[in-house]
Amino acid sequence: MLNQTSTSHSAPISCALITGATGFIGSWLTKLFLHHNIRVVAFGRKPWEQVDPQRLAAHKLLTYIPLSQEQLSSVPKYLEAAGIGAVQLGSNAVFYNLAWGSSGGLSDLDVAGQMGNVLASQQAFLLAEALGCKRLVQIGTMEEAFTEAYLPLDFHHAPYYNRHIIYAEAKRCARMTLKAMCSSMHCELIIVNQSHIMGPLDHRDSFITATMKRILKGEPLRFTPCEQYFDVVSVFDCVRALKIIGERGQPQAEYWIGSGHARPLKEYVNILLQLHATAAPVEFGALSYQDVRLDKSVFSPELLQRDTGFTCELDFPQITAELYTWLQTGQVITHLD
């Protein structure tokens, strides 16, 4: 953890600047701020006409700027063209850096591409400083925790494999780069990691969502023993936590957004099976598990709760019930209040 001050820094956010705003978490974060009548400057790679309207729609307080991470240094020019200056940004603007690109998916093992993300994170911090933002909230990944346990292994004897390793190590590199920069910055740095995030409009092929789809199709379910600890958080709790961190988080803190109820993965699968019965065969232990195991404490949101008072409101049965509704009917149930 970075050296942390005990001084309270609670203040309403005047404007949120969000990279990766067309992504799963970024779009819900954008909608949360707009729901609370907070100005948002959203950055995304796609031209506006190509953005999924379910993820982002026009709003009087939304300014959307299409650009790549490599173009972040050009943002002041775009803001000037949009008529957004210091007055519009306000005295408590917060920069949320969620963008993370890849050529063929986050697990494509593209080292050069992932290192480009590290440079883009550095540029985001410099941009936040230049714009006079109060703080930069850098978003990490749960895979960083696996990487910290994975890299020290003796691979002559440890038969493990983690396809996310290059992506996660680049995330760790970005974290260390920003921490090295922060002593010379006026803009405060806060780093956030989170447990597995679930909710509607998530098109990623994650384990829980993929399992749900297989249940719906009546396909056989073959798993590892699923004894490793896991944790799930609703996307609505996640973005609410990010908003609260922007308002109340301690400068230089490193937070984990978690449910506070991490449990073996098998328990999550069994809850799915209880809620959505299947006649297809279910086999735990049919596949071998070839990755490190995380201690339950890794998923602890204790520091976040202590500093901000945040706790999750949606439990796993409700999360999966609403995911089921979206997958079956396309109906999106939201929790933005």
UniProtKB/TrEMBL annotation:
<feature type="domain" description="NAD-dependent epimerase/dehydratase">
    <location>
        <begin position="16"/>
        <end position="258"/>
    </location>
</feature>
<comment type="pathway">
    <text>Bacterial outer membrane biogenesis; LPS O-antigen biosynthesis.</text>
</comment>
<dbReference type="InterPro" id="IPR001509">
    <property type="entry name" value="Epimerase_deHydtase"/>
</dbReference>
<comment type="similarity">
    <text>Belongs to the NAD(P)-dependent epimerase/dehydratase family.</text>
</comment>
<protein>
    <submittedName>
        <fullName>NAD(P)-dependent oxidoreductase</fullName>
    </submittedName>
</protein>
<dbReference type="Pfam" id="PF01370">
    <property type="entry name" value="Epimerase"/>
</dbReference>
<dbReference type="InterPro" id="IPR036291">
    <property type="entry name" value="NAD(P)-bd_dom_sf"/>
</dbReference>
